[in-house]
Amino acid sequence: MLHNSPSLLPTFVSLSSAVPKQAFDQNTLWDSVFDDWYADIPDARDIGTVTRVRKRHMAWDPARELGGRTRGIGERMKDFVGIVDEVAGEAVENLLQTMHPTDVGSIVMASSTGYYGPTPDYFLAKRFGFKSNIRRTFIGHMGCFAAFNVIKTAIDSVTTRPNEYTVGVCAEFSSLHFRPDPSREQAIVHNLFGDAVGAFTLAMREPGHGPQILATHTHQSYDTSDMMTLSVLDDGVRMTLSPYVPFVIASLINQFIDDLCASASVDPANIKHWAIHPGGPKIVDMVAQRLNISEHQLASTWHVLSEYGNCASATVLLVLEHLIANDKPQPGELGVMLAFGPGLTLEGALLRF
User: Fold this and answer.
1) Where are the beta strands (DSSP E) in 250-343?
2) Which pLDDT score, from 0 to 100, does residue 29 have?
3) Do 9-205 and 212-352 show the same overall fold?
4) How many Å from the N-terminal Cα to the C-terminal Cα in the chain?
């Protein structure tokens, strides 16, 4: 358990998301750039359908920014500075509708797609008038599960200082790292990832103020570190993704859920709501099969994958935001958040709505 009190727990008081203004459907991307990049791959265009992604928001239009060439890491990071301030700023501004900036004691931010210093959380704190003694943490290069590192750092902050809010931000702009690498693996990656920011405020609250976090759990599969990787190259960040990833996650997921629920003395059969990071359609399908999750319970996961793509660490926050707005969980109902990333690493949180 995260806290000794049966009622006062770390709570998602508010959630917010924002995306770049540019949006592209899969056919447009194939017509404008991918047909050329993957001309030598048989049935390459089918990849766009297999991913189940319909539309994505992107900081970069690959046809205009890349075309027949690539770009250096310096150019990519220069554009990250501008887009993260714009889009993350929109998400944080939405959070501040429900609190005053001086009530925020900590800001925690993650990104695997951009680097500069001072880190973006510094400029967000300055822009919105956060206190000059605010505690800042920036989490880099952990991949799709990094929202949970943000959440757990936020938990530590609010349990230690229960009169303060903590702001958490996950800002990912994968389109800044698209590169004309003519392999089937990279075609899958480039047809899956989109750009978004997910943000939240966490505070210690009684039931009824938002989803309470009952427990978190982590599992590192130390024998599978080569199945999903992120490497910084001269011309961007390159991701590798083994086709065996869904099988490994599926083999671990039942024990993972048992361990997560046991830490809060909860029966897994009582989980009603599932916010699953859509790392890819096969991952979602296999996890759902192992856990007997219905299509209705996957509606928010599939919606985010279709309309935004895999937005790395921001994605699970987008799924939770959509789930709350559309499923309207009832007070006392239980839910689970899940995400998966390099390692392979499984991360989860048990929620009480």
Assistant:
1) 271-276, 334-341
2) 94
3) yes
4) 16
CATH of domain 9-205: 3.40.47.10
The band of 5, judged by pLDDT with boundaries at 50, 70 and 90, is low
CATH fold of the domain at 212-352:
Peroxisomal Thiolase; Chain A, domain 1 (3.40.47)
- Phi, psi for 264 (deg, rounded to 5): -120, 15
- % of the chain with per-residue pLDDT over 90: 87
Domain ranges (residues) in the chain: 9-205, 212-352
Give this prediction's pTM.
0.95
* pLDDT greater than 60 at residue 176: yes
What distance in Å separates the CA atoms of residue 294 and residue 261, rounded to the nearest whole number?
19
Q: What is the token pair recorded at 319?
A: 């799924």
Listed in sequence order, the DSSP H helices in 96-243 are: 120-127, 146-160, 184-190
Res. 1: pLDDT tops 70: no
Contact 101, 128 (CB under 8 A): yes
Q: Which residues pair with 336 in a beta bridge?
A: 274, 350
- Residue 77 pLDDT greater than 60, yes or no: yes
CA proximity to 280, closest of 324, 250, 255: 250
Print burial letters for 43-81: b (CB count within 10 Å at least 16), e (below 16).
Answer: ebbebbeebbbeebbbbbbbbebbeeebbebeebeebbe
Neighbours of 332 (CB within 10 A): 10
